[in-house]
Write a structure and sequence with these properties.
With 185 residues, the protein is mainly β. It has one domain. A hairpin with a 2-residue loop joins strand 8 and strand 9.
């Protein structure tokens, strides 16, 4: 009886494992950008003196010859600033954005786009899928940024930190649009 039970368990386990398949390649892969740039490499090589100041975790949607702003990304509607899960930004130290203090912590990053400016929204409701449960009452900060046009279209939405004299700019680029969010310590 024990052998029969063992044989049945092994058969069921084998059958279940044989049916499992890996997930498909995501069309909007996850990416992470750090301030300072390349922080994980600095850390592994012993050159990081402290924890990073910030990092942004986001999925990178592709342009794929589609019109983006004013089309896929609707003007005057909340956008998760990427694809899939809402974009997250983590500050490992307190920072200032538009002169307003933002405490150390992990936040969700949204955008309210228009044709000539974006309102960047830092919200304390984490681990959200998209912008389907966005709650304005959990906003920590809203900051309006102007936009620049790029000379070439950016295929995959890109975010990175660019160090400045007083801190860093979070650069957000996609299609022919570039937004810059100044951040200081």
């Amino acid at each position: 009886m024990k052998r029969l039970f063992l044989a049945i368990c092994i058969s069921i386990t084998t059958l279940c494992q044989a049916q499992q398949k890996p997930t498909e390649l995501d069309k909007s892969p996850l990416d992470i950008s750090y301030w300072p740039a390349n922080y994980p490499i600095l850390k592994m090589s012993g050159k990081a003196k402290d924890v990073p100041i910030a990092r942004v975790l986001y999925s990178r949607p592709q342009k794929n010859n589609r019109p983006i702003f004013g089309a896929i990304i609707k003007y005057n509607e909340i956008w998760r600033l990427g694809a899939n899960e809402a974009t997250e930004i983590e500050f490992f130290k307190a920072v200032k954005i538009n002169g307003k203090q933002v405490a150390k912590g992990r936040y969700t990053l949204y955008c309210l786009p228009t044709d000539n400016k974006w309102t960047i929204i830092i919200n304390k409701d984490n681990y959200c899928w998209g912008n389907f449960v966005y709650d304005v009452k959990k906003d920590v900060l809203r900051s309006t940024i102007t936009l620049d046009k790029t000379s070439e279209a950016v295929e995959a939405m890109t975010m990175y930190f660019e160090e400045t004299k007083n801190g860093a700019n979070l650069i957000i680029m996609w299609d022919d649009t570039k937004g810059t969010l100044p951040i200081s310590l």
